[in-house]
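Z., the sequence and structure:
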Amino acid sequence: MPKNKKLKPQKQGLLADNIKLITIMKKLYYLQENIQYNKQKAFTLVELVVTIGILTMVVGIIFALYWTSQKFYQLTQFQAEMLQNSRVVLERMNREIRQAKEIVTALSQSPDNPSSQIEFQDGHHPSPYDYLNSLYYYIRYYVSTTTGEMHRQYLVYCFDECSQCSNFFKWNDIQIINGNTITTHPCVLEDKIVGEFIKELKIWGANIITIVLQLEKSSRQIEIQTNVFTRNF
């Protein structure tokens, strides 16, 4: 068999150069593939703008839904608060007017000219003012036009100054002294706030007294009406 012949140095140099060239071409090929792959993965400017636009729209929708739900919750809370407030006020007025011995305020018989307050003689035990030993105690409900608060006054009537009064009379009692007619005047024992958010109070009627409360809070308004059947007059 013929023996392997050794390559000449010139041919060995050409083979090494070819191997280097092939290696460089492979590296260039792989580099080109990586560049194309990275281009496919990257965002273009148009895609980036569209993505930002969609994201902004989604965030805006979420914020609008959140704001609407919060606004609805707030309005619901306002309405519930006003309903609770009106219920407490009307229940107390209903109970006390039902037991009243006499209505002091001249009430209209129709809703065309309602009163904005009501005063009547208390028909309950006058605690804690029974120590005064008066036969006549009166309750007055009215609304402060500046604060929108419902006030409940507890009072008696005197001829003397309130600080010196020890004898108490009916609201319409009179005295004639030296030909002069003197009427009683109210002395307030207490003035308490029993309700708030009251925009208007309307009262009318005789044996059946109608009470209308209009309440307002943060531009939200409600109107509640009740009828009171009096027992003692």
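The mean pLDDT is 85. Helices lie at 9-41, 45-98.

Let me know what you think.
H.
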